[in-house]
Amino acid sequence: MAGHSWGAELALRYASRHQDRTTAVAYIAGVGAGNGFREAFAAELDRRLGPTRSSGAAVNMTANRELWADRESEDLRLAAARITCPVTMPFGADDPRPWTAADSLLAAIPNASRIVLDDAGHAPWAERPAQTRRVIIDALRPALHGALGSAVIQAVERDLLQQQPGRGGHRDGHQRADDA
Question: How many CB atoms lie within 10 A of CB 60?
């Protein structure tokens, strides 16, 4: 199971409720539990774009309110604590939604690891495609072995080897993702 941003939270909630159907999760650039990211997010947007910026995108405010209300119906940290499969949390170091907002989730999930990709923001697959693909494939490897077999994994790995090596990153602030 893989999800990005809001979808990352949905992936965790699914894994929590359907442990028998989930063998691994890639929680890609999620916003963490609660609303702790909002203040840092607003400050980073102001720093990057200025306080009088235009959003550049229309937002369905009714849907937005309903999604946030649903999000608050169950503490994500409690749901995360029930997850039995490995969870990998890739983030872009330059994401305006700070990756540190997921610290409480990282602590709550019994088998979780975080990888922070240098020179990437909220869409790491667009900014660091080869490295992000490697992180996701490694994260979902248990599911790939079970569902797709080793031939598919070998083909993906051959494709990765042919690409340019990444420019670095770190796991939990200590190890470069290229060295992982």
Answer: 9
